[in-house]
Design goal:
The protein is mostly helical. It is built from 14 helices and 2 strands; from the N terminus they run H-H-H-H-H-H-E-E-H-H-H-H-H-H-H-H. A two-stranded antiparallel sheet has the order 1-2. Helix 3 packs parallel to helix 7 and helix 3 (44-67) crosses helix 11 (253-266). The radius of gyration is 19 Å and the shape is globular.
């Protein structure tokens, strides 16, 4: 659900990304160098959690930031893929790469079903339908035998990637997660800067006009929904391998709310915004957990401040100021 006040502010960054300005390339290259060197300075498991949630937020941003569709049910794709990956790897003995692919495929099918049911509605009705469907997945995860109920699926073996790379080694696991994140990020970047992405933005800006030009908008929105669900599943399946478990936490409505928070904090409709937002939220949760402070209250207060001071999100505000100074 994009408003006219925010869509105009997002244009400079999407245009910059599509034209390949040196500033955007430099930011991307600098970020890549930092990510490559990060495990030698920071805890690898913490970094892997950031990357998984960054990919999750990028997937959600593709739907809301570029398609104008607010979903409150993305936890179903994230957590559903985690369960499928964990089960296939632990119980069926599949290699980790195949388990992750099957998890993403499950999310794609689930996204197709959810999208077909919800895509004909708009605004709050669309959001509520996705929330209701996601809650159905949550109750299934709670009741079905293979999910382990409240205990979840634990002790998932990381295994050998392609039968060669031992993912029990922290650095090997980290660079595998980094490769998955970069793949997902490039898919989002290519989608946004493709003709399909341009049509998607046109639908976000003015759907009736896009229909009048002959575009079958429901088809474009459904495809965007399925792609977003698939990438969310890719993030969830990868997280299940990293932490070697899949639990109900991954499919709760709070998880859907958390990814909305990450995207809005970083900057909706920007390429780098969800990454920044995910890093900020995961960092706060990680370091505040060791204190007596109520983590949700602190994060909520920071969110309120960011909304008041950075209406476009952190990255969106930075880009808007840089463009204004040109």
């Amino acid at each position: 659900m994009a408003t006219h006040t925010t869509t105009d502010d997002r244009r400079p960054l999407t245009g910059a990304a599509s034209s390949g300005l040196p500033a955007g390339l430099l930011v991307g290259l600098a970020g890549l160098v930092i990510l490559l060197a990060a495990p030698f300075a920071l805890y690898p498991v913490f970094l892997m959690k950031v990357l998984c949630f960054a990919l999750f937020a990028c997937a959600f941003n593709l739907l809301i930031g570029y398609g104008g569709l607010l979903s409150f049910g993305h936890a179903a794709f994230f957590g559903g893929a985690a369960y499928i990956t964990a089960h296939t790897v632990k119980v069926w003995g599949f290699p980790p790469e195949l388990g992750i692919i099957l998890g993403a495929a499950f999310s794609a099918v689930l996204g197709l079903v959810f999208g077909a049911l919800a895509i004909r509605r708009q605004g709050i009705y669309f959001a509520m339908i996705t929330l209701a469907l996601s809650q159905m997945v949550f109750f299934l995860a709670l009741q079905l035998k293979f999910t382990g109920g409240e205990d979840g699926i634990q002790a998932v073996p990381r295994g050998m990637l392609f039968g060669v790379i031992d993912l029990n080694q922290p650095l090997a696991m980290y660079y595998t997660v980094l490769a998955v994140f970069l793949f997902g990020f490039l898919v989002v970047w290519r989608t946004v800067n493709s003709p399909f992405g341009q049509v998607l933005k046109a639908i976000r800006e003015n759907e009736p006009r896009a229909i009048s030009l002959g575009y079958r908008t429901d088809h474009y929105k459904l495809l965007a929904f399925v792609l977003s669900a698939t990438l969310a599943g890719l993030a969830g399946g990868t997280k299940a391998i990293v932490f070697q478990l899949a639990t109900l936490t991954d499919v709760t409505w709070q998880m859907s709310g958390e990814v909305v928070l990450m995207t809005l904090l970083g900057g909706m409709g920007t390429l780098y915004g969800p990454v920044v937002g995910a890093a900020l939220v995961v960092t706060l949760e990680n370091y505040l957990a060791a204190t007596n402070l109520p983590v949700p209250v602190v994060i909520g207060a920071i969110f309120v401040l960011c909304v008041l001071l950075f209406r476009r999100g952190i990255v969106g505000e930075i880009v808007a100021r840089l463009n204004k100074g040109r």
